[in-house]
Specification:
Blueprint lengths: L5 H11 L4 H7 L8 H12 L1 H13 E4 L2 E4 H17 L3 H14 L4 H5 L12 H12 L7
Antiparallel strand pairs: 1-2
Helix pairs in contact: 1-2, 1-4, 2-3, 5-6, 6-8
Length: about 140
């Protein structure tokens, strides 16, 4: 991947935060067009493989939750802590769910992917979604029979 200039990097950061591509184009400081012309210019940037790769890398590295950047590493550490606390408290369903989510993030259950199931990655889940999953497992709502 080539090194992006400052405007391209800013564009990628904004698009990764779900800002409209045309708005990101103007906000990144690209000279000239606005409106429909900015949309066309932004679409050209979005076709660039290096731009798309950078946007994906930014999204994979972190996501925004209430203004706080949360990394996959942090989520995995919190899941591990949830596993340890749940095990100590005898909440084995929640402990197993935390391990399952960690395993899925690490790609340990590839047979589920082969079956074509659409599964959301941990990095794409909000903290609230993770908490709901773990809490519902603690209450026994998602038990496998």
């Amino acid at each position: 991947m080539r090194i992006l200039d400052a405007m391209e990097e800013r564009f990628c950061q904004l698009v990764a935060q779900d800002v409209d591509a045309a708005e990101a184009y103007v906000a990144a400081g690209f000279p000239g067009p606005c409106g429909k012309a900015a949309q066309i210019a932004a679409d050209r940037l979005m076709v660039d493989a290096d731009i798309r790769d950078r946007i994906e890398a930014i999204k994979d590295a972190s996501y925004e939750e209430d203004g706080t950047t949360v990394s996959k590493e942090r989520i995995c550490k919190e899941l591990w802590q949830t596993y340890l606390r749940s095990t100590a408290a005898g909440q084995h369903v929640a402990a197993n769910r935390a391990l399952e989510l960690l395993g899925k993030e690490k790609g340990m259950f590839s047979e589920a992917k082969k079956k074509g199931k659409d599964q959301k990655k941990i990095g794409d889940m909000s903290l609230e979604e993770l908490r709901v999953i773990i809490a519902s497992d603690a209450r026994g709502k998602n038990r496998v029979q």
